[in-house]
Write a structure and sequence with these properties.
Number of strands: 0
Number of helices: 1
Mean pLDDT: 73
Oligomer: single chain
Order of helices and strands: H
Strand content: under 5%
Low-confidence stretches: none
């Protein structure tokens, strides 16, 4: 039984971008908890999103 796709269709690039945002936030929180006051602030950004986006369709959606 195929799983229903709920919500907007998201490209692999958009999903990766969101994953990077979560990873950056986690690392920032970790640095704050360690108290790295003496180290320079780290400015992290997720990769830029560029066309073309790639979508993966399940076997059932083809």
């Amino acid at each position: 039984e195929p799983a229903l796709v709920l919500g907007p269709l998201r490209s692999n690039e958009e999903q990766r971008w969101e994953q990077q945002l979560l990873e950056i936030a986690a690392r920032k929180k970790e640095r704050e908890e360690r108290g790295d006051e003496n180290s320079p602030p780290v400015e992290e950004k997720p990769d830029e999103l560029h066309e073309p986006f790639h979508y993966e369709f399940s076997y059932w959606a083809r």
